[in-house]
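Narrative summary of target 7.
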Amino acid sequence: MGNSENKKARGNIYVTYFILFASIFLVTFVTLGTSLIFLVDSYSVNEKTDLLSENTMELADYVSRNLIANDMNSKYTDEKASICNSLNVVSRCIDSDVFVCDTSGNIIMCKDQIGSVQRKSLVCEDHGTVMDDRLIQNAYESESGTAVTTATFDGRKCFVVSTVIRSLPATKDDAEGEIIGSVFAIAENGTAQIVTSIIKMFTVVALICMGVGFVMIWMLTKKMVTPLQQMSAAAKRFAVGDFSYRVNISGNDELADLGIAFNDMADALDKLESSRRSFVANVSHELKTPMTSIAGFIDGILDGTIPREKQDYYLKLVSDEVRRLSRLVVAMLNMSKMESGDFEMKPKNYNISDQIVQILLTFEQNIEKKHIEILGLDHMKPHRVNADPDMIYQVIYNLFDNAVKFTNIGGYIGVNVTEFEDMVQITIKNSGDGINSAELPHLFERFYKVDKSRSLDASGAGLGLYIVKMMVEMHGGRIWAQSNSSTTAEFTFTLPKE
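Modeled conformation, tokenized:
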């Protein structure tokens, strides 16, 4: 069911992209083809009519210079034979029928009258046509003396160009001579063949481009859909708790960026799930152990297994375990509040050096028990910071608690407070087992606990340093850890002065 739905989705995406591409392609080609056809047709018509006009004007001038009005319909002469020869040459050159009409529209000279003998009438028997008065009138009414129009002859649509023939002016005062006839040029409209050729060419090119476009769209769609399919498969596996699946990344485009972001999210989810499982195991262990001890001690007191003289001792153990549970619960509550933004800060300006000394005094018994030497207190000067005293107390207390736990017997803890222009830097360094370099980047992660070799005395759930980091960053400072060798560990954090 799921596979069929995926295939259907892929098909829809492909069809959508192909239809979109084909529509854009067809609209573009139709627009370009129509424009090109119009331009070619217009150019062809203009070229043809200009050529016809130019030749009819030259012939009209030639007839005007060789004939007079009274000689237009007279006998066949050498001058008329010469004109017919010229009409024959021009007709062949411009692929049209060129002839001369008198004022009545009779065709009196044409290419077919070459070598004709004298007749009673010069009207061409081969043409046998009297030009339509409308066509003759067009030339007469034209300001330039030349008219271009279209007409149908023998069922064919043709261009008709006519130019009036005027006799030479009788006197210098005459602006124009008398109209004695017209020169006509008729050419078949051949643009339909050109248009058909262009349509055929565009059809072939369009089919080729559609084929190429089909392949390109298929490749492009596959490239786009494949990462989405992988992400869909990964999301389904994430839904059942399997965060091991990763998207294959290729290229350097937006899809690659999306794939990288998706894999980063998977890494974060995998790490979070691992931390969650570890946290649940640790918290379960941390809760189960003291509760089991508390129940055992109380049951022993109630049933008389523990003698009365030892009851105070075991009650103190119960009290310690209860406090331990309380610290764990408080740490989890604080973490939840800080992550949700509900933790309220109450900053004020105070001397952090005094706070460090006060916190160290709370570890006096453990320090003396392990014979730990404290370095740096004798040179410490007053340094004021602007922070929440209770939050920073917990930060320093957690760091000192770790330092005391992991300092070797007879070792040392060094405290150094350095003041800069806008901040104060506090460093706590202890001897003992160092921290593995591979673990340094993860120390402040939620639920993270260092390697067991350094956790011989660690009973926390991996929240202490995470909460410390959050508290420091809430003040606008930062915290980091370093271990220069296998015998020291050093934690440093900064706080603003104002």
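The chain has a mean pLDDT of 79.
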